[in-house]
Amino acid sequence: xxxxxxxxxxxxxxxxxxxxxxxxxxxxxxxxxxxxxxxxxxxxxxxxxxxxxxxxxxxxxxxxxxxxxxxxxxxxxxxxxxxxxxxxxxxxxxxxxxxxxxxxxxxxxxxxxxxxxxxxxxxxxxxxxxxxxxxxxxxxxxxxxxxxxxxxxxxxxxxxxxxxxxxxxxxxxxxxxxxxxxxxxxxxxxxxxxxxxxxxxxxxxxxxxxxxxxxxxxxxxxxxxxxxxxxxxxxxxxxxxxxxxxxxxxxxxxxxxxxxxxxxxxxxxxxxxxxxxxxxxxxxxxxxxxxxxxxxxxxxxxxxxxxxxxxxxxxxxxxxxxxxxxxxxxxxxxxxxxxxxxxxxxxxxxxxxxxxxxxxxxxxxxxxxxxxxxxxxxxxxxxxxxxxxxxxxxxxxxxxxxxxxxxxxxxxxxxxxxxxxxxxxxxxxxxxxxxxxxxxxxxxxxxxxxxxxxxxxxxxxxxxxxxxxxxxxxxxxxxxxxxxxxxxxxxxxxxxxxxxxxxxxxxxxxxxxxxxxxxxxxxxxxxxxxxxxxxxxxxxxxxxxxxxxxxxxxxxxxxxxxxxxxxxx
Length: 569
Known about the structure:
Layout: H1 11-20, H2 24-29, E1 34-44, E2 53-56, H3 58-68, H4 71-77, H5 82-86, E3 97-107, E4 111-112, E5 114-118, E6 142-146, E7 162-165, E8 169-178, H6 186-196, E9 203-206, E10 215-225, H7 228-231, E11 235-239, H8 268-271, E12 277-279, H9 288-297, H10 310-322, E13 323-324, E14 327-328, H11 332-337, H12 342-347, H13 355-358, H14 363-374, H15 381-390, H16 392-397, H17 402-409, H18 418-430, E15 434-437, E16 454-464, H19 465-479, H20 481-485, H21 498-509, H22 521-533, H23 562-568
Parallel strand pairs: 4-12
Antiparallel strand pairs: 1-3, 2-15, 3-16, 5-6, 7-11, 8-10, 9-10, 9-11, 12-15, 13-14
Helix pairs in contact: 3-18, 14-17, 19-21, 19-22, 19-23
């Protein structure tokens, strides 16, 4: 396993840990408030514990487990999907997959969720989602990476307030050019100059990338040069107003006040992922936190000019002062109309009748309207931006924001096949939580000491993934068995067949066209959690025993895949 810190009591390890968690954290630790939560991890049986692992509550893991069943169909049409690239080490390979349930004790502040996945290959990160293995770490080892950590580490001047592009570059109006820069310092100089000119600068471009001595500062409107770094040696970054410059400006981190120093803009327990990471409503892109992650993972290719229409400019202005990330904060309308904000919002083009639309921002409704009015132009920068401007009033009524419109116009949110649509729909139906727990914050024992953040209080039960998933599937099938019976041939018994999967997901999610009601998500959650606590024969699954310590932490030598086990059962 990857272990950045073993939390030992001798030598350098403890010294590094105390440095990370020093300052006000040590004092706050004495009176720390704690939270207990139950979480479930699905991995090959050879992986122990939760260090450097992702896990989820019952809703989060019902979503994840059932979504894995879609991969035989989904990966056949979109092999680039991240989960498809991980199947060799997980459910689609030879691994013996199990769920383990845990009760975790943690401090009462949750940080940024990290995606912990099997690493693949070695060498420098190229900015893609697939995690590259650190030197000396074999393929298939779980390694954690936050959505903001993809690509090389940016210089300090670019750490906050910028979206660094790793594949694309920018086109736009250059209003200032910096020359004679030292190549090793040019990227930081670009960010520093852009930050100093925050009222004008929307981003920067380095025509010759890391070898260049020239930086072009640009103002709105910006247009992405999709794949520019492949075609050229350029480098680029865009000002990202959603990136809070200091931890205490981010409402998500308010609970870290006892652990972080307000006199410092950064907070080590957040930046070093010491705290347990949380993604609420995991992968439901209608949720603010998940949408934030999605937008950071997807490169927009068209940008609405904020100067083109007062409404679009208004959405960005309101977003800077009355949004939490990409979604309206509670009492957004009151915030916008408050005397401390309203005069500047009026200067940005806002009118009172715009505020209810901006503060009711709805990504789903917005993307549907863009598909209706501008569907033929999606993916074509200039024509799509023109269409958005022409239909500003219609999109205002659909509660669009400039950010949502840019993303939808670039093709974001559009699914190439209905298997991916099932994944997003199930995520929003289950509203589950995902957690990431790194070794950096793990306690050595069952006590929150000043040098740690979380520990496993108890392990509930380890069971075959096929049994837990099978319990949920049986509950679903019992509500509409005729669907599987009607499948042609043997497809109604083949968990990988299209007919089987359509029956499964349409029964859970419902179908308004055919009159199929959706299932209660809490019924599925209870069925799943009962598999860990109830006796065998009464909804519980048989406990399985993990290998001996010498056999742990290897993805080799396991037996059958999840799909095969469910089919056999």
